[in-house]
């Protein structure tokens, strides 16, 4: 295992003012948890924390994110988008999903997005995003990306198995290079989103998301946070990231958050 080169990352990303601060730690429970605490004590906008491994990595709906040393990229970014209304910050996870597909394009890996923010290659899950709101108008954006095969990992919802960049012929599996590219792509996408006050359409991101989203046009079941489920055809994503579903009777409804399973 080649360790992440923190000095190189700081030179490429902090010295050039894309980010305010960047640290790499050998091990932590969760980079999101650490940055949430840092946000409460005044850490700067565009602060990055990357871990070689996480011992208590968390995905959406409090699921465990397997984070073995050296096998992936586990990072969180603290953002303070004062220009974005609180009700629009939910679309930030979609911004991160686009940055991940940008990265995959750079690496020669054909990836798609499963709404709202899972990155798939074929029928395998390559990466996930977890955005958590923090008091004082901050968001901690966590990204987990599998670089090397994880071995025997329990499949996610809908039977999605974990997959990795290495399994799909990525141009490089150098995690330092991957981290630098991903963070640059994220900075580009996030700045456009911030200038547009969180409106994906005005930021020029909505059309890109619709094109990258493999959920659209599929029959899906969505498990909602309240325990309800909805089944229908996913027909659109709007400017704040909500998914529109049309049932067999032609009735449409929008979903802001939920767990999607692609049925066919």
Can you walk through the features of this model?
The chain has 264 residues and is of the alpha+beta class. The longest helix is centred in the C-terminal third of the chain and has 21 residues, at 175-195. The protein contains five helices and 13 strands. It folds into two domains: 6-208, Bira Bifunctional Protein, Domain 2 (BirA Bifunctional Protein, domain 2), CATH 3.30.930; 216-262, SH3 type barrels. The chain is 24% helix and 28% strand. Strand 6 and strand 7 form a beta hairpin.
Which features would summarize this protein structure in a list?
2 domains; globular; SH3 type barrels; BirA Bifunctional Protein, domain 2; alpha+beta; 8-stranded mixed sheet; 264 residues; single chain; 5-stranded antiparallel sheet
Q: Could you write a compact summary of the structure shown?
A:
This protein has 264 residues and is α+β, with helices and mostly antiparallel strands. The protein has five helices and 13 strands.
**CATH overall fold name of the largest domain:** BirA Bifunctional Protein, domain 2
- Poorly predicted regions: none
General form: globular
Q: State the helix count.
A: 5
Give the CATH level 1 class of the largest domain: Alpha Beta
CATH architecture of the largest domain: 2-Layer Sandwich
Category by helix and strand content: alpha+beta
CATH homolog superfamily of the largest domain: Bira Bifunctional Protein, Domain 2
Please provide the count of β strands.
Answer: 13
For the record, the count of structural domains works out to 2
Q: Could you tell me the strand content as a percent range?
A: 25-35%
In percent, how helical is the residue content?
10-25%
Q: Main beta sheet, described? A: 8 strands, mixed
Pfam families: BPL_C, BPL_LplA_LipB
Enzyme class: ligase
Protein name: biotin--[biotin carboxyl-carrier protein] ligase
GO molecular function, one term: biotin--[biotin carboxyl-carrier protein] ligase activity
């Amino acid at each position: 295992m080649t360790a992440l080169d923190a000095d190189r990352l700081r030179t490429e990303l902090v010295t050039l003012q894309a980010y305010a601060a960047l640290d790499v730690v050998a091990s932590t429970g969760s980079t999101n948890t650490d940055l949430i605490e840092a946000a409460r004590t005044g850490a700067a906008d565009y602060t990055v924390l990357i871990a070689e491994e996480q011992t208590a990595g968390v995905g959406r709906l409090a699921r465990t994110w397997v984070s073995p040393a050296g096998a992936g990229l586990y990072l969180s970014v603290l953002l303070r988008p004062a220009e974005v209304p609180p009700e629009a910050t939910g679309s930030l996870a979609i911004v991160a999903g686009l940055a991940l597909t940008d990265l995959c394009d750079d690496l020669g890996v054909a990836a798609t997005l499963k709404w709202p923010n899972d990155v798939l290659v074929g029928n395998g899950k390559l990466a996930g995003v977890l955005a958590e709101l923090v008091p004082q108008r901050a968001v901690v954006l966590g990204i987990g990306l599998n670089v090397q095969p994880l071995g025997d990992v329990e499949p996610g919802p809908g039977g999605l198995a974990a997959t990795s960049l290495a399994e799909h012929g990525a141009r490089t599996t150098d995690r330092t290079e991957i981290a630098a590219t991903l963070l640059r792509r994220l900075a580009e996408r996030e700045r456009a989103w911030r200038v547009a006050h969180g409106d994906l359409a005005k930021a020029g991101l909505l059309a890109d998301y619709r094109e990258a989203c493999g959920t659209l046009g599929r029959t899906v079941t969505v498990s909602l946070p309240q325990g309800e489920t909805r089944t229908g055809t996913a027909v659109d994503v709007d400017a704040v990231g909500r998914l529109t579903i049309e049932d067999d009777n032609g009735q449409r409804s929008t979903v802001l958050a939920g767990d999607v399973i692609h049925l066919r």
